[in-house]
Amino acid sequence: MPVRVKVCGITRLEDAQVAVREGAAALGFVFYEPSPRYIAPAQAAKIIESLPPFVTTTALFVNESADAVAVIAEQTQVDLLQFHGDESAAFCGAFDRPYIKAIRMRPNADLLAETEAFSSARALLLDAYKPGVPGGTGEAFNWDEIPLELRHNIILAGGLTPENISQAIKQVAPYAVDVSGGVEASKGVKDPNKLARFFQEVARAENR
Ligand SMILES: O=C(O)c1ccccc1N[C@@H]1O[C@H](COP(=O)(O)O)[C@@H](O)[C@H]1O
């Protein structure tokens, strides 16, 4: 099965269009105000309604209130919710949309237990752990820490770049990868050349 690519941290229509043209299966919008990739829901809604079909749109939240999640999901009409904080499975599953749960790879993270706890999630997304930073760190973690039996079901994130994505896919063989900072020109602005190289490297890793 070909690895799916989600490009996260979209703040501009032109970046969404380039990502889709290069082959993104999904786009992510960050609704976490301290992030330099934050996008106002109204602006995200405009981008989302202009997308062609068959591109999954994802709304990223960090410890947001249930009311805000529900309002933003309705306003933007995203397909999928991404919870990137300390949300419980009960919280994540309380909305009228499917969700993915980000797990930050703390030392000794028990992914088998997390998989059981978040059995209602469509998938777990694995990101690097950096104390005090909820995500988007641009840092990779040690992929050997992912239990072999989970590798084909996870979304691999954290510090992926055109330089390391080929190795990541060969080593982990994940269901999907999620890239943000590694394809940026500056925070919140994607670089078309880096995006193109990233997708070329994905294809190369899969011998396409
Ligand atoms: O992008 C952010 O600013 C962000 C803020 C808070 C939580 C998550 C965030 N981004 C997500 O983190 C991972 C890894 O990002 P990177 O490729 O290392 O930059 C990815 O899912 C981003 O969407």
TrEMBL record:
Gene Ontology MF terms: phosphoribosylanthranilate isomerase activity
EC number(s) stated in the UniProt entry for this protein: 5.3.1.24
N-(5'phosphoribosyl) anthranilate isomerase (PRAI) domain ranges (all copies): 5-200
Superkingdom of the source species: Bacteria
Keywords: Amino-acid biosynthesis, Aromatic amino acid biosynthesis, Isomerase, Tryptophan biosynthesis
Signal peptide range in chain numbering: none
Group of enzyme by EC: isomerase
InterPro entries: Aldolase_TIM (IPR013785), PRAI_dom (IPR001240), RibuloseP-bd_barrel (IPR011060), TrpF_fam (IPR044643)
GO annotation terms (biological process): L-tryptophan biosynthetic process
Reactions this protein catalyses: N-(5-phospho-beta-D-ribosyl)anthranilate = 1-(2-carboxyphenylamino)-1-deoxy-D-ribulose 5-phosphate
Pathway linked to the protein: Amino-acid biosynthesis; L-tryptophan biosynthesis; L-tryptophan from chorismate: step 3/5
HAMAP family assigned to the protein according to its UniProt record, in alphabetical order: PRAI (MF_00135)
Entry similarity comment: Belongs to the TrpF family.
NCBIfam families, sorted: PRK01222.1-4
Record protein name field: N-(5'-phosphoribosyl)anthranilate isomerase
Organism, as annotated: Neptunomonas marina
Gene name in the database record: trpF
